[in-house]
Model the fold of this input.
Amino acid sequence: MKYYFLLVFFLFAQNLRAQNFSLKVEEKKGLGNVKYQVIPFHIQDSVLLKNFIYDHKIEEYKSLYLITFTNGNSHPSYLRDSLFLLMNIDKSNNRKIQLDDDFDANFTNNTEHVFTPETKSYPIINIRRRQVIGNDTVVFYLPYELRAFDNRIAIGKIKKELTLTEAWYKEGKFNYQGQEYVIRLKEPLLTKDGKNDIFFRYKIANDTSEFSNPYRIGDTIRLDTKRYVLNLDQDNLRFTYVGQYDPTTYNFNRKDFISQKEIQLSQFKGKYILLDFWGSWCVPCIEGIPDLKQLAKDYKGKIEIVSIAFDHDEDISKLKSIISEHEMDWTHIKEPRIFNNESGLNNKFDVKSFPTFILIDKKGNIIFNSATSSTLKGLKQFLSKIDDL
Done:
């Protein structure tokens, strides 16, 4: 009998290994979608230019540009950062661009990127972003591809030749059950020299649909009825089979701290479920409540909203006050404000920023996650494309 169980276990392990596969990802240039471009604003102000230190070459024409990263094109908790660019045009009409990416108003200590009309290779620039999480300000860098002589898009009738495009910097393809997929990777940096999370997204090759929402390396994805964990070893992307898809994977049991009723996520089976991760301390969360209420009204009976407050126990009265004041008439759960809580829902759903909106479809699949894309505005656009809503 002992050998029989060993044989069964051996065959099971062999079956798991047989379903694993890997692929090579290659560094690419120009993978960013043009609709995710940042267009520097041309500042025609010679007085402002005098506030900067730069190389005064008389024979070169100088233009100052500004990029302002605001809440309009990012998560509300991101801080407003203004980045200046200096573009010199020499006698041969070449563009020489410097970014004040250390924010010290000094272009002489920044790399000069030279572009000619024949340039085909474009540099990846790591641009600083800052985000407020609780009482902390986190600094990280996002990769963008810098181009001159671009002319890929126009605003009105004017083509904007100087652009920054989000840099999905590696790409690979794989076949799964006769279908070819393409997958892309991007690596934000916690510091200029240190590595942070690597994100990826994928889609069916030669399909006009959008790529999936971003995932992190180490996340589990679903291909048909099978689930795979993705890991990256240099340029080798490994798909490790971890079992069949279980629609109860994201189920949990909690108590609604307003109604005191026991809540199981599975009780909403057959409906779309929107998980709203927020906190009484989170200013963007509070500011977004009116829009969330409007969404609840627009999709009443079709989407169940479950708000999950990430708060300390002593803040429970403050939470209840906010919920009552704004008439947030839906399910409310409170989770301990502990970031390394293994049993917490923020850990279960890998929530690292607030607010985060996660949409689960009628079959139990996560189909939208705002943490690595956009917030409520992006969610509304996504919902508008779902046929049965």
User: Anything to note?
Assistant: Residues 142 and 188 are 5 Å apart (CA to CA). The radius of gyration is 24 Å. The chain is about 15% helix and 40% strand. The longest strand covers residues 136-147.
